[in-house]
Amino acid sequence: MEIAQEARDRIFAAANSLYEQAGRAGNFPTVDAVRKLAKVNMNDASVGMKEWRRTQTTQAAPVVVQVPEAVQQASAVAVATLWHEAQELANESLRAAQAGWDAERIEAETLTKQIGDAYEALVVSFDAAQLDAANARSSLEQSEADAHDLQASLETATVALTAAEAATVTAEARTVEIKFRADELRAELDHAHQEASQVRDELAALRQAHQDEIEALKAATAAQQARADEATAKAEAATAAIRAELTAATAKAEDAARTAAGAMDALRTDLATVRAKAEAAQEALQQERSQAAAELQRLVQQLDQSKAERDQANQAANQAREEAATLRGRMDAITDQNSQLMQTLKPSPVTDASK
């Protein structure tokens, strides 16, 4: 079987290199080692190694048929001696040829055994490669299934993230509304405080006015009492006629006193009414304060609850973002793993050459 000259040269170069590395110790390099170094197929390596081994063994050289000098000198002695020397030379050539044939036969058997060993090693390597390919395909299928599951989880996380963001927006809007309502209630409470202050001012003014009227009535009563005393003194010093006039004046003074007492009672009644109104206004103001404080407390609680809901929504959004980032990282890792598996499944140049 003939091989290409370029392949033959590479086989010879590889064999010589391996033989030199072994120190020419008599152990020729194996066919498989030469095949791997020369990067040729097994058939070319086997044929090339046979030729290379043949060049390394001693070839049986043909014997030049000529009369030796010893025979020429002994020609006179005996033809039998000449024949004996010729027969010995022929036997020596035969033994040399036989040794060469035996060496070539042993070399051929060695090559056959090496080829068989290399073939079995290739079969084992091929079976292992098929098993690795099957495992790689299984891993690839599992990776694709995991990628599909991760894609579904990513979609779910995206939906959850969208819902969390919507809840966050709703909570923020609700917080703004509650703050606006709290500001309105604070404004109403301030207005109620202003009205209560105004009522207190009006009540104080009304009390001062009634106090002034009472003082005026007391002054008028005192003046009337003084005039009555003066009239009494004049009546005692006067005559009986004047006593009659004094009696009449006394009666008039008593009427005036009764009138003043009635005015005092009316003023006391009005003062009690004003006090009752003031107390009712104070009680209503206190009730409004209590209601406003309760409403403010409720709004503060709603505000705190809204803040808590907003914090929970932000926490859920952050968690959803972290889960989405983790899922994306796992997707990238699976993609890289799939690429590595596909790269592993690609046949190598050495495997193709060995076929």
Helix-strand string: HHHHHHH
Structural class of the helix and strand makeup? mainly alpha
State the end-to-end CA separation.
17 Å
| Residue share in helix | over 70%
Number of DSSP E strands: 0
Largest sheet: none
Low-confidence stretches: 58-65, 350-355
**What is Rg?**
67 Å
Give the overall form: rod-shaped
Average pLDDT over all residues: 77
Strand residue percentage: under 5%
Number of helices: 7
Outline the structure in words.
This protein is mainly alpha-helical. Helices cover 89% and strands 0% of the residues. The protein is built from seven helices and no strands. Helix 1 packs across helix 2, helix 3 (42-56) crosses helix 5 and helix 5 (79-237) packs antiparallel against helix 6. It is rod-shaped.
In brief:
This protein is an all-alpha fold and 355 residues long. 89% of the residues lie in helices and 0% in strands.
